[in-house]
């Protein structure tokens, strides 16, 4: 999709150059926002705020672990930090950020005027604010925040103070927000595509979000069920997870991970979509194997439902069960590898340049692949029995979630922010942010593989002397990684938000493709009020 043609065959923007005078102003524009771009911006700002809160908790954890012995906090508060760090990062930072990208980009990419349900879109964002306040505010309740781990395992959850109930309520509200956002995304993609845009001509980012949205609708009610049973066990005399009343705490784990494993793919599939947009643009080639990418994404989503108990190899599972979950988990590596090979094949003999979006995309592929390999190692049941709940697992999922989800978001920000703000970010600062993040990330999390292999368990506030050196290195790395993200906000995001910098052209990236590059930069308040018509040959957009 390379050009918009008007009736005379000249490039033009007949579908988006008017109606800007309808834009509301002041606080009403944001509180009553129904425009997908404004709501996308709100999501992204909210998620960055939560990233900072969750990051602060991570730094408190690393400060405590800087040396053996107890330095700053008692073990109970330490467990509150680990629990809240996980919950805030997953439900407050990563998921809302991807929804922000979806809100901004999906209508632009499919040629829709807005999201399908504009008021529900507003509601699903504003639900997050009270949920986040309740979640973070639980630190100030009697007994402090929940300290049962982000997985909220029974029987610990049945012994927590009142903050546990606040946490459960917050999770319910965030889940409702996710479900509404997903319905909105599905209906927008299926019903509001521009004429001529078949499903198999859609950008990969739209595909990965369509599949992610179905995953969310499938598993969010499962999480709601698990935490509701926890709530009734706590207050209404049921015994779902209480062995004294005939319940089973392991049943909680089964229900939780049936949500929890698809959830980790919910957090990575949109990242795959972003990388699949960026790599072709900077390799100046079409995405290699588009159809296989779509099928691989769908396969990952389907397989994600049959691997949940690989989180439970140490719960006394029968051997047959262990073998099934071991092989199913290894199977999911196949479609994931297809994606990695396709990205590499796209870059192969491409005319590549390494602007910041491409740096983060390539960094993503490299570090995500490392995280994938450690996941494959943990899939082997006898190895996992040794490594279960050690720092090896912590290293594994941070390689996937920080270097996976977060790097892809940075890549997406650098790639699309010229379209959002109308201003080019500072390329030198972007590269500084990339190298600073990449090096400090690996300094933080690579030593954790060795800590785990040597037997250091996770979620402990203290440890024996032999783990001291690697922990000190990890803590220093973590501080630098955190500072890199503060640098990103103040020296890269803020200047572009304030309009400081070189003016962005309509298509700042030479080989970028897609309808989003057919509207001016910054994208006008209303776009595609008359849907663009796609030429059947799919190389042109007819105005």
TrEMBL record:
Superkingdom as given in the UniProt entry: Bacteria
SUPFAM superfamilies, per the entry: Cytochrome c oxidase subunit I-like (SSF81442)
Record-linked InterPro entries: Cyt_c_oxase-like_su1_dom, Cyt_c_oxase-like_su1_sf, Cyt_C_Oxase_1, Cyt_c_Oxase_su1_BS, Cyt_c_oxase_su1_dom, Cyt_c_oxidase_su1_bac
Pathway, per record: Energy metabolism; oxidative phosphorylation
Catalytic reactions of this protein: 4 Fe(II)-[cytochrome c] + O2 + 8 H(+)(in) = 4 Fe(III)-[cytochrome c] + 2 H2O + 4 H(+)(out)
Keyword check for Lipid biosynthesis: no
EC number: 7.1.1.9
Compositional bias (Basic and acidic residues): 7-22
Enzyme class (EC, first level): translocase
Segments forming domain Cytochrome oxidase subunit I profile: 21-535
Annotated segments matching region Disordered: 1-22
Subcellular location, record wording: Cell membrane; Membrane
Membrane topology per record: Multi-pass membrane protein
Keyword Transmembrane helix annotated: yes
Chain ranges passing through the membrane: 42-63, 83-104, 125-148, 168-192, 204-231, 251-275, 287-311, 323-345, 357-381, 393-415, 435-456, 476-498
Keywords: Cell membrane, Copper, Electron transport, Heme, Iron, Membrane, Metal-binding, Respiratory chain, Translocase, Transmembrane, Transmembrane helix, Transport
Major localization listed first in the record, in broad terms: membrane
Family: Belongs to the heme-copper respiratory oxidase family.
Task of the protein: Cytochrome c oxidase is the component of the respiratory chain that catalyzes the reduction of oxygen to water. Subunits 1-3 form the functional core of the enzyme complex. CO I is the catalytic subunit of the enzyme. Electrons originating in cytochrome c are transferred via the copper A center of subunit 2 and heme A of subunit 1 to the bimetallic center formed by heme A3 and copper B.
Name under which the protein is recorded: Cytochrome c oxidase subunit 1
Species of origin: Variovorax robiniae
């Amino acid at each position: 999709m390379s050009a918009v043609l008007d009736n005379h065959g000249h490039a033009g923007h007949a579908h988006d150059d008017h109606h800007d005078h309808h834009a509301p102003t002041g606080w009403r524009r944001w509180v009553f926002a129904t425009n997908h771009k404004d709501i996308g911006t709100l999501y992204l700002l909210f998620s960055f705020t939560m990233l900072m809160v969750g990051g602060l908790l991570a730094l408190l954890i690393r400060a405590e672990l800087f040396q053996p012995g107890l330095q700053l906090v008692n073990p109970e508060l330490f467990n509150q930090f680990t629990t809240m760090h996980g919950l805030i990062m997953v439900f407050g930072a990563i998921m809302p950020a991807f929804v922000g990208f979806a809100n901004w980009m999906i209508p632009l990419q499919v040629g829709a005027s807005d999201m399908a349900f504009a008021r529900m879109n507003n509601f699903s964002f504003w639900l997050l604010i009270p949920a986040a306040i309740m979640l973070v505010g639980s630190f100030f309740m009697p007994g402090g925040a929940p300290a049962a781990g982000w997985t909220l395992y029974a029987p610990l959850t049945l012994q927590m103070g009142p903050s546990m109930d606040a946490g459960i309520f917050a999770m319910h509200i965030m889940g409702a927000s996710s479900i509404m956002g997903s319905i909105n995304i599905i209906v927008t993609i299926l019903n509001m595509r521009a004429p001529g845009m078949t499903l198999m001509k859609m950008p990969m980012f739209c595909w990965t979000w369509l599949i992610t949205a179905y995953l969310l609708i499938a598993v969010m009610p499962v999480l709601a069920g698990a935490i509701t049973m926890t709530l009734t066990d706590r207050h209404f005399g049921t015994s779902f997870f209480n062995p004294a009343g005939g319940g089973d705490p392991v049943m909680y784990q089964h229900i939780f991970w049936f949500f929890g494993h698809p959830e980790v793919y919910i957090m990575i599939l949109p990242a795959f979509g972003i990388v699949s947009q960026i790599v072709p643009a900077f390799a100046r080639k079409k995405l290699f194997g588009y159809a296989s990418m779509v099928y691989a994404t769908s396969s990952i989503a389907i397989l994600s439902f049959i691997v949940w108990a690989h989180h439970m190899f140490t719960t006394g599972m029968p051997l047959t069960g262990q073998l099934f979950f071991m092989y199913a988990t290894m199977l999911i590596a196949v479609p994931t590898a297809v994606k990695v090979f396709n990205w590499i094949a796209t870059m192969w003999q491409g005319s590549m340049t390494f602007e910041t979006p491409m740096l983060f995309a390539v960094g993503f592929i490299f570090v995500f692949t490392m995280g994938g390999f450690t996941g494959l190692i943990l899939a082997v049941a006898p190895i996992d029995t040794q490594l279960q709940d050690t720092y090896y697992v912590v290293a594994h999922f941070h390689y996937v979630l920080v270097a996976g989800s977060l790097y892809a978001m940075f890549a997406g920000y650098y790639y699309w922010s010229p379209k959002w703000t109308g201003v080019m970010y500072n390329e030198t600062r972007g590269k500084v942010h990339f190298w600073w993040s990449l090096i400090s990330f690996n300094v933080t999390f690579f030593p954790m593989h060795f800590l785990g292999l040597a037997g250091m368990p996770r979620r402990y506030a203290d440890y024996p002397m032999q783990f001291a050196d690697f922990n000190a290195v990890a803590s220093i790395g973590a501080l630098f990684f955190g500072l890199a993200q503060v640098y990103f906000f103040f020296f890269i995001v803020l200047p572009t938000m304030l309009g400081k910098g070189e003016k962005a052209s309509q298509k700042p990236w030479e080989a970028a493709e897609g309808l989003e590059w057919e509207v001016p930069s910054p994208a006008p308040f209303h776009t595609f009020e008359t849907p663009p018509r796609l030429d059947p040959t799919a190389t042109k957009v007819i105005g």
